């Protein structure tokens, strides 16, 4: 019951964070000091995502596949992690980029909505991974990873919408919808844990922990870390903050 209340609290906090980050770009432009803080926050989120994927979700996925008692000697956890990584790679680097190029000279650009789709799918997968989790400390680790990135992801989506001159009511609707994607995943995952067939629940958890591993590593490496270190300033500080996030996940892994 305690973990259920934690998941409900997570839902509320994720929604608030997503809305706050997403609607911030509709206000005044961010100061240079604010941009530096955002960059540091992203660096911390990068370390958190990397640590959560490698030290929490992936080991849990391996354990759950073993618990299924399958007689096939095959690295299913690594397979689904790869599928998650490649799926998000396709959505963001192939589908989104292609649409962006096709509509570069178009009067109406749907790039922000494709970005929304990418972020929404990732949010649902991550949310389901949290919802399926039955270990309290592992849930905390996944939640920290989600909340650390939700605001910056919402901010990126909001900036994209504002740049394309989307009207404010449409921006608000899009951000609200984005904000509930993770809670939707948490709710679905939590429902699946109540299934009478315990092996079915374990199977779902194994698959979605694996998929989340791939998406978390993708977000950490190709999105967050790549963007954080794209600018040459304050590299040592950024690296230190990123390392702090990873060490935090490593420390939590001691008790999970």
Please tag this protein with its features.
single chain, 256 residues, mainly alpha
Describe the structure in your own words:
This protein is mainly alpha-helical. It has one domain. Helices cover 82% and strands 0% of the residues. It has nine helices and no strands. α3 (76-102) packs across α8 (198-228) and α4 runs antiparallel to α5. The chain is globular. 46% of the residues are buried.
How many E-type strands?
0
What overall geometry do the principal axes of the alpha carbons give? globular
Unreliable runs: none
In percent, how helical is the residue content?
over 70%
Give the structure's gist in a few sentences.
The model has no long low-confidence stretch (mean pLDDT 82). Helix 1 runs antiparallel to helix 6 (168-179), helix 2 (32-67) packs antiparallel against helix 3 and helix 5 (136-163) runs antiparallel to helix 6.
Topology:
Elements: H1 2-23, H2 32-67, H3 76-102, H4 111-132, H5 136-163, H6 168-179, H7 181-192, H8 198-228, H9 235-253
Helix pairs in contact: 1-5, 1-6, 1-7, 2-3, 2-5, 2-8, 2-9, 3-4, 3-8, 4-5, 4-7, 4-8, 5-6
């Amino acid at each position: 019951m305690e973990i259920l209340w934690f998941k409900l609290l997570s839902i509320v906090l994720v929604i608030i964070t997503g809305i706050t980050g997403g609607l911030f770009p509709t206000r005044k432009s961010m100061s240079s000091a604010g941009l530096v803080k955002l960059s540091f926050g992203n660096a911390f989120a990068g370390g958190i995502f990397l640590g959560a994927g490698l030290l929490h979700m992936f080991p849990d996925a391996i354990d759950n596949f073993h618990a299924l008692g399958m007689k096939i000697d095959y690295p299913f956890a690594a397979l689904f992690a790869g599928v998650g990584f490649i799926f998000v790679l396709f959505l963001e680097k192939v589908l989104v980029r292609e649409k962006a190029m096709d509509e570069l000279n178009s009067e109406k650009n749907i790039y922000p909505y494709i970005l929304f789709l990418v972020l929404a799918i990732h949010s649902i997968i991550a949310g389901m991974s949290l919802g399926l989790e039955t270990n309290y400390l592992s849930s905390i680790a996944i939640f920290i990873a989600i909340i650390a990135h939700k605001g910056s992801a919402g901010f990126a989506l909001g900036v994209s919408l504002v740049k394309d001159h989307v009207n404010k009511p449409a921006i608000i609707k899009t951000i609200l919808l984005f904000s509930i994607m993770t809670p939707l995943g948490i709710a679905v995952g939590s429902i699946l844990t109540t299934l009478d067939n315990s092996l079915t629940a374990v199977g779902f958890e194994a698959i979605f922990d694996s998929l989340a591993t791939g998406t978390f590593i993708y977000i950490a490496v190709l999105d967050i870390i790549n963007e954080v270190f794209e600018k040459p300033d304050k590299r040592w500080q950024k690296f230190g903050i990123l390392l702090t996030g990873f060490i935090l996940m490593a420390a939590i892994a001691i008790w999970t």
